[in-house]
Amino acid sequence: MAVQKLFPVLFLQLALVFFLAGLTNAGGLQLGFYQGVCPDAELIVHQTLYRYISRDRTLAAPLLRMHFHDCFIRGCDGSVLLSSTKKNQAEKDAIPNQTLRGFNVIDAVKSALEKKCPGVVSCSDILALVARDAVLMIGGPRWDVPTGRRDGRVSIANEALFNLPSPFANITVLKQQFSATGLSVKDLAVLSGGHTIGIGHCTLISNRLYNFTGKGDTDPSLDPRYAAQLKKKCKPGNSNTVVEMDPGSFKSFDEDYYTIVAKRRGLFQSDSALLDDAETRDYVRFQSRTQGSSFAQDFADSMVKMGYIGVLTGKQGEIRKRCAVVN
Fold this sequence. Notes:
Shape: globular
Structural class: mainly alpha
Oligomer: single chain
Number of strands: 2
Strand order of the largest sheet: 1-2
Mean pLDDT: 92
Largest sheet: 2 strands, antiparallel
Radius of gyration: 22 Å
Distance between the termini: 59 Å
Low-confidence stretches: 1-26
Order of helices and strands: HHHHHHHHEHHEHHHH
Strand content: under 5%
Helix content: 40-55%
Number of helices: 14
Protein backbone atom coordinates (compact mmCIF):
# COMPACT_ATOMS: atom_id res chain seq x y z
CA MET A 1 0.00 0.00 0.00
CA ALA A 2 2.82 2.37 0.92
CA VAL A 3 4.51 1.64 -2.40
CA GLN A 4 1.27 2.36 -4.26
CA LYS A 5 0.97 5.74 -2.54
CA LEU A 6 4.63 6.52 -3.20
CA PHE A 7 4.45 5.86 -6.95
CA PRO A 8 2.22 8.85 -7.86
CA VAL A 9 4.43 11.15 -5.78
CA LEU A 10 7.58 9.94 -7.53
CA PHE A 11 5.84 10.26 -10.89
CA LEU A 12 4.91 13.87 -10.19
CA GLN A 13 8.44 14.67 -9.02
CA LEU A 14 9.95 13.14 -12.17
CA ALA A 15 7.46 14.99 -14.33
CA LEU A 16 8.50 18.25 -12.67
CA VAL A 17 12.18 17.49 -13.23
CA PHE A 18 11.61 16.84 -16.92
CA PHE A 19 9.44 19.96 -17.22
CA LEU A 20 12.15 22.15 -15.68
CA ALA A 21 14.81 20.50 -17.82
CA GLY A 22 12.74 21.33 -20.88
CA LEU A 23 12.61 24.99 -19.86
CA THR A 24 16.40 25.25 -19.47
CA ASN A 25 16.97 23.30 -22.68
CA ALA A 26 14.60 25.30 -24.88
CA GLY A 27 16.07 25.68 -28.36
CA GLY A 28 18.77 23.11 -27.61
CA LEU A 29 20.67 25.44 -25.28
CA GLN A 30 21.01 25.03 -21.54
CA LEU A 31 22.59 26.73 -18.57
CA GLY A 32 25.87 25.14 -17.54
CA PHE A 33 26.16 23.21 -20.81
CA TYR A 34 29.94 22.81 -20.36
CA GLN A 35 29.83 21.89 -16.67
CA GLY A 36 30.62 18.24 -17.27
CA VAL A 37 33.14 18.60 -20.11
CA CYS A 38 34.86 21.91 -19.34
CA PRO A 39 33.74 23.14 -15.91
CA ASP A 40 36.01 26.20 -15.93
CA ALA A 41 34.88 27.40 -19.37
CA GLU A 42 33.00 30.52 -18.23
CA LEU A 43 35.72 31.39 -15.71
CA ILE A 44 38.38 31.17 -18.43
CA VAL A 45 36.31 33.44 -20.68
CA HIS A 46 35.88 35.98 -17.88
CA GLN A 47 39.52 36.01 -16.77
CA THR A 48 40.91 36.27 -20.31
CA LEU A 49 38.51 39.04 -21.24
CA TYR A 50 39.25 40.99 -18.07
CA ARG A 51 42.90 41.31 -19.08
CA TYR A 52 41.76 43.28 -22.13
CA ILE A 53 38.85 45.29 -20.71
CA SER A 54 40.87 46.37 -17.65
CA ARG A 55 43.36 48.01 -20.02
CA ASP A 56 40.83 49.36 -22.54
CA ARG A 57 37.19 49.82 -21.53
CA THR A 58 36.30 50.95 -25.06
CA LEU A 59 36.60 47.33 -26.22
CA ALA A 60 33.30 46.45 -24.53
CA ALA A 61 31.19 48.22 -27.16
CA PRO A 62 32.63 46.51 -30.26
CA LEU A 63 32.54 43.11 -28.54
CA LEU A 64 28.86 43.60 -27.72
CA ARG A 65 28.25 44.80 -31.27
CA MET A 66 30.02 41.73 -32.66
CA HIS A 67 27.52 39.45 -30.93
CA PHE A 68 24.62 41.51 -32.37
CA HIS A 69 26.08 41.36 -35.87
CA ASP A 70 26.63 37.63 -35.57
CA CYS A 71 23.09 36.82 -34.42
CA PHE A 72 21.31 38.93 -37.03
CA ILE A 73 22.96 37.04 -39.92
CA ARG A 74 22.30 33.28 -40.06
CA GLY A 75 21.65 33.29 -36.31
CA CYS A 76 24.16 33.14 -33.46
CA ASP A 77 26.55 30.76 -35.19
CA GLY A 78 29.91 32.58 -35.13
CA SER A 79 29.74 33.30 -38.87
CA VAL A 80 30.89 36.90 -38.32
CA LEU A 81 34.25 35.55 -37.15
CA LEU A 82 35.10 33.67 -40.35
CA SER A 83 37.72 35.19 -42.65
CA SER A 84 37.26 35.58 -46.38
CA THR A 85 38.83 33.11 -48.78
CA LYS A 86 39.83 33.36 -52.44
CA LYS A 87 36.45 31.93 -53.37
CA ASN A 88 34.25 33.76 -50.86
CA GLN A 89 33.97 37.19 -49.27
CA ALA A 90 32.84 36.66 -45.68
CA GLU A 91 30.61 38.77 -43.40
CA LYS A 92 33.67 40.17 -41.68
CA ASP A 93 34.53 42.13 -44.84
CA ALA A 94 31.04 43.53 -45.47
CA ILE A 95 30.92 47.33 -45.13
CA PRO A 96 28.89 47.33 -41.86
CA ASN A 97 31.44 44.99 -40.26
CA GLN A 98 34.61 46.73 -41.38
CA THR A 99 34.58 48.87 -38.23
CA LEU A 100 34.26 45.86 -35.91
CA ARG A 101 37.23 45.28 -33.66
CA GLY A 102 38.14 42.89 -30.89
CA PHE A 103 38.66 39.79 -33.03
CA ASN A 104 42.02 39.39 -31.27
CA VAL A 105 40.18 39.20 -27.94
CA ILE A 106 37.92 36.40 -29.20
CA ASP A 107 41.00 34.57 -30.53
CA ALA A 108 42.74 34.92 -27.15
CA VAL A 109 39.71 33.52 -25.32
CA LYS A 110 39.46 30.64 -27.80
CA SER A 111 43.17 29.88 -27.42
CA ALA A 112 42.88 29.76 -23.63
CA LEU A 113 39.90 27.42 -23.86
CA GLU A 114 41.60 25.15 -26.39
CA LYS A 115 44.55 24.72 -24.02
CA LYS A 116 42.26 23.60 -21.21
CA CYS A 117 39.47 21.86 -23.15
CA PRO A 118 40.43 21.27 -26.80
CA GLY A 119 37.56 21.03 -29.29
CA VAL A 120 34.83 21.62 -26.72
CA VAL A 121 33.69 25.28 -26.55
CA SER A 122 32.23 26.85 -29.69
CA CYS A 123 33.19 30.26 -31.03
CA SER A 124 29.51 31.24 -31.08
CA ASP A 125 29.21 30.53 -27.36
CA ILE A 126 32.39 32.53 -26.78
CA LEU A 127 30.77 35.53 -28.52
CA ALA A 128 27.69 35.27 -26.29
CA LEU A 129 29.72 34.93 -23.08
CA VAL A 130 32.15 37.70 -24.00
CA ALA A 131 29.28 40.10 -24.79
CA ARG A 132 27.73 39.39 -21.38
CA ASP A 133 30.98 39.77 -19.44
CA ALA A 134 32.09 42.88 -21.36
CA VAL A 135 28.84 44.65 -20.42
CA LEU A 136 29.19 43.50 -16.80
CA MET A 137 32.78 44.77 -16.58
CA ILE A 138 31.78 48.33 -17.44
CA GLY A 139 28.88 48.61 -15.04
CA GLY A 140 26.06 46.90 -16.92
CA PRO A 141 23.78 44.04 -15.87
CA ARG A 142 24.71 40.38 -15.68
CA TRP A 143 22.55 37.66 -17.19
CA ASP A 144 22.75 33.89 -17.38
CA VAL A 145 23.87 32.74 -20.82
CA PRO A 146 22.46 29.40 -21.96
CA THR A 147 25.18 27.63 -23.96
CA GLY A 148 25.47 24.73 -26.36
CA ARG A 149 25.66 26.66 -29.65
CA ARG A 150 27.67 25.14 -32.45
CA ASP A 151 29.51 27.02 -35.18
CA GLY A 152 28.29 27.53 -38.72
CA ARG A 153 30.39 26.88 -41.79
CA VAL A 154 28.94 29.60 -44.07
CA SER A 155 29.63 33.33 -44.08
CA ILE A 156 28.58 35.60 -46.95
CA ALA A 157 29.36 39.31 -47.07
CA ASN A 158 26.24 40.33 -49.01
CA GLU A 159 23.99 38.85 -46.33
CA ALA A 160 25.52 41.20 -43.77
CA LEU A 161 25.46 44.13 -46.17
CA PHE A 162 21.72 43.88 -46.80
CA ASN A 163 20.31 42.36 -43.60
CA LEU A 164 22.06 44.05 -40.67
CA PRO A 165 20.04 46.86 -39.05
CA SER A 166 21.45 50.06 -40.52
CA PRO A 167 22.24 53.36 -38.75
CA PHE A 168 20.28 54.97 -41.60
CA ALA A 169 17.15 52.82 -41.12
CA ASN A 170 13.72 54.24 -40.35
CA ILE A 171 11.41 52.72 -37.75
CA THR A 172 9.43 50.67 -40.29
CA VAL A 173 12.55 48.91 -41.57
CA LEU A 174 13.92 48.38 -38.07
CA LYS A 175 10.68 46.77 -36.88
CA GLN A 176 10.64 44.48 -39.93
CA GLN A 177 14.26 43.39 -39.38
CA PHE A 178 13.75 42.67 -35.69
CA SER A 179 10.50 40.84 -36.37
CA ALA A 180 12.23 38.66 -38.97
CA THR A 181 14.55 37.34 -36.25
CA GLY A 182 11.75 36.75 -33.75
CA LEU A 183 12.46 39.87 -31.70
CA SER A 184 9.66 42.21 -30.61
CA VAL A 185 9.21 45.96 -30.87
CA LYS A 186 10.13 46.18 -27.19
CA ASP A 187 13.33 44.23 -27.91
CA LEU A 188 14.14 46.84 -30.57
CA ALA A 189 13.76 49.67 -28.04
CA VAL A 190 15.70 47.78 -25.38
CA LEU A 191 18.59 46.53 -27.49
CA SER A 192 19.03 49.96 -29.07
CA GLY A 193 20.09 50.94 -25.55
CA GLY A 194 23.36 49.16 -26.29
CA HIS A 195 24.30 52.46 -27.92
CA THR A 196 24.91 53.79 -24.43
CA ILE A 197 28.49 52.66 -25.06
CA GLY A 198 30.75 53.07 -28.06
CA ILE A 199 31.48 55.52 -30.84
CA GLY A 200 30.22 56.36 -34.31
CA HIS A 201 32.17 57.50 -37.36
CA CYS A 202 31.49 60.91 -38.87
CA THR A 203 30.85 59.30 -42.26
CA LEU A 204 27.69 57.71 -40.83
CA ILE A 205 26.14 61.03 -39.85
CA SER A 206 27.48 63.28 -42.62
CA ASN A 207 24.21 63.20 -44.57
CA ARG A 208 22.21 63.99 -41.44
CA LEU A 209 24.32 67.08 -40.91
CA TYR A 210 24.92 68.44 -44.38
CA ASN A 211 22.64 66.96 -47.04
CA PHE A 212 19.69 65.18 -45.50
CA THR A 213 17.24 65.57 -48.41
CA GLY A 214 19.81 66.37 -51.08
CA LYS A 215 19.37 70.13 -50.66
CA GLY A 216 22.27 70.84 -48.32
CA ASP A 217 20.01 70.66 -45.26
CA THR A 218 20.22 69.12 -41.77
CA ASP A 219 17.94 66.36 -40.48
CA PRO A 220 15.06 68.23 -38.78
CA SER A 221 14.62 65.40 -36.24
CA LEU A 222 18.05 66.26 -34.78
CA ASP A 223 18.22 68.88 -32.03
CA PRO A 224 19.70 72.00 -33.73
CA ARG A 225 22.12 72.73 -30.89
CA TYR A 226 23.41 69.17 -30.93
CA ALA A 227 23.70 69.30 -34.72
CA ALA A 228 25.84 72.44 -34.38
CA GLN A 229 28.14 70.63 -31.92
CA LEU A 230 28.47 67.66 -34.26
CA LYS A 231 29.33 69.92 -37.19
CA LYS A 232 32.30 71.27 -35.25
CA LYS A 233 33.66 67.73 -34.92
CA CYS A 234 32.53 66.29 -38.25
CA LYS A 235 33.54 68.58 -41.09
CA PRO A 236 32.24 67.76 -44.60
CA GLY A 237 34.17 64.85 -46.09
CA ASN A 238 35.70 63.87 -42.75
CA SER A 239 35.99 60.09 -42.72
CA ASN A 240 38.41 59.50 -39.84
CA THR A 241 36.94 61.33 -36.84
CA VAL A 242 34.69 59.50 -34.39
CA VAL A 243 32.13 60.85 -31.94
CA GLU A 244 30.75 59.38 -28.73
CA MET A 245 27.41 57.61 -28.94
CA ASP A 246 26.58 58.67 -25.39
CA PRO A 247 28.56 61.88 -24.76
CA GLY A 248 30.10 61.97 -21.31
CA SER A 249 29.62 58.31 -20.42
CA PHE A 250 30.34 56.31 -23.56
CA LYS A 251 32.63 53.96 -21.60
CA SER A 252 29.99 53.14 -18.97
CA PHE A 253 26.87 51.05 -19.45
CA ASP A 254 24.01 53.17 -18.12
CA GLU A 255 20.56 54.50 -19.04
CA ASP A 256 21.75 57.88 -20.39
CA TYR A 257 21.06 56.77 -23.95
CA TYR A 258 17.31 57.17 -23.45
CA THR A 259 17.66 60.66 -22.00
CA ILE A 260 19.71 61.63 -25.04
CA VAL A 261 17.25 60.13 -27.53
CA ALA A 262 14.31 61.77 -25.74
CA LYS A 263 16.06 65.13 -26.22
CA ARG A 264 16.41 64.39 -29.97
CA ARG A 265 20.16 63.88 -29.63
CA GLY A 266 20.43 60.30 -30.85
CA LEU A 267 23.53 60.07 -33.02
CA PHE A 268 22.15 57.89 -35.80
CA GLN A 269 18.91 58.07 -37.75
CA SER A 270 18.08 54.66 -36.30
CA ASP A 271 18.32 56.15 -32.80
CA SER A 272 16.04 59.08 -33.66
CA ALA A 273 13.64 56.62 -35.33
CA LEU A 274 12.66 55.28 -31.89
CA LEU A 275 10.61 58.47 -31.47
CA ASP A 276 8.57 57.68 -34.61
CA ASP A 277 6.62 54.74 -33.16
CA ALA A 278 4.25 54.86 -30.21
CA GLU A 279 5.62 51.78 -28.44
CA THR A 280 9.31 52.57 -28.84
CA ARG A 281 8.71 56.25 -28.03
CA ASP A 282 6.89 55.34 -24.82
CA TYR A 283 9.76 53.07 -23.81
CA VAL A 284 12.35 55.79 -24.46
CA ARG A 285 10.38 58.35 -22.46
CA PHE A 286 9.71 55.94 -19.59
CA GLN A 287 13.40 55.05 -19.18
CA SER A 288 14.37 58.70 -19.47
CA ARG A 289 11.79 59.78 -16.89
CA THR A 290 12.61 57.02 -14.38
CA GLN A 291 16.41 57.02 -14.78
CA GLY A 292 16.28 53.62 -16.45
CA SER A 293 14.27 51.93 -13.71
CA SER A 294 13.79 48.69 -15.68
CA PHE A 295 16.47 49.01 -18.36
CA ALA A 296 19.08 46.70 -16.81
CA GLN A 297 16.63 43.81 -16.41
CA ASP A 298 15.02 44.48 -19.79
CA PHE A 299 18.41 44.47 -21.49
CA ALA A 300 19.41 41.23 -19.81
CA ASP A 301 16.13 39.58 -20.89
CA SER A 302 16.41 40.79 -24.50
CA MET A 303 20.04 39.69 -24.77
CA VAL A 304 19.11 36.16 -23.68
CA LYS A 305 16.29 36.18 -26.23
CA MET A 306 18.59 37.42 -28.99
CA GLY A 307 21.10 34.70 -28.13
CA TYR A 308 18.60 32.04 -29.25
CA ILE A 309 18.24 33.35 -32.81
CA GLY A 310 18.90 30.58 -35.34
CA VAL A 311 21.22 28.59 -33.09
CA LEU A 312 22.87 25.39 -34.28
CA THR A 313 22.86 22.64 -31.67
CA GLY A 314 23.35 18.90 -31.31
CA LYS A 315 25.07 17.55 -34.39
CA GLN A 316 24.53 20.67 -36.49
CA GLY A 317 27.54 22.75 -37.52
CA GLU A 318 30.86 22.11 -35.80
CA ILE A 319 33.12 23.24 -32.96
CA ARG A 320 35.80 25.27 -34.74
CA LYS A 321 39.39 24.79 -33.66
CA ARG A 322 40.11 28.35 -34.78
CA CYS A 323 37.35 30.92 -34.93
CA ALA A 324 38.44 32.47 -38.24
CA VAL A 325 38.37 29.27 -40.30
CA VAL A 326 36.15 26.22 -40.65
CA ASN A 327 37.66 22.93 -39.62
